[in-house]
Amino acid sequence: MTTHSRTVVVTGAANGIGRATALKFAMQDHAVFGADLQYSDENRALLEAAGITCLMADVRDVTSVESVIQKAIQATSRLDVLVNNAGLGMVKQIDDVSEADWDMVIDTNLKAAFFGCKAAITVMSQQASGGSIINVASNAGLLPRSHDPVYSISKMALVGLTKSLALCHSKDRIRINCVCPGPVENTQMIEENFVGRTDRQQVVRELIQASPLARAWDRMISPDEVADAILYLASEGARMVSGTAIAIDGGKSLGVPPG
After folding, report:
1. Which residues are catalytically annotated?
2. 100 and 227 co-located in one domain
3. pLDDT digit string (tens) for 121-141?
4. Global pTM value
5. What's the CA gap between 207 and 225, in Å, rounded?
């Protein structure tokens, strides 16, 4: 029987940042449980080949989130790291936002993380080693954005949730941090920027131009770069780091870049 160093749960593990994160944890010989609403055959095969357990979950359903965490605990008797990565974008102005739109974004981006944290904290607080929770927010959680107010609200609230719970549960040796990425290539969320646009390269140029470092390097951020930050926050090297919001956005959240 293989003995893994830690037990890790990653939501939204089928694609993008979640997939990169799950694979990197698996490479470090952790027991990794990925959760997602659906997997392509290719992505499931890739994850399972790395030893990752692929679970089905709709994170908007509290019992579904709790079930994933319980399955990880049943298999390994512990939970060391939770990455609340599952997320949903929405580019709509307030006049076009329905109650169903609001519920879908807030439930996916905020409610799921809150109840994921709740389920994880219940377990981690009973462990002498505590645990680490990393929420995947966005640069939209650090500054308002004019084109996606509901999404921005959800991510700003997620940053606040991170800081509040970090303060509440430091006594339990539970560290809670978040990363604030964007724009990240090869993710489902970034694909929304291409809907209705005929010139894909022009959209890519616009996304790159919005971030000063992305502009300087002439590329977007990679999922692996965000995953590396998540692994750091979960590591022993970050044992005294809690309540932080690390921007991995090419400097986009700093303000208006030089011309």
Report:
1. 151
2. yes
3. 999 999 999 999 999 999 989
4. 0.93
5. 17
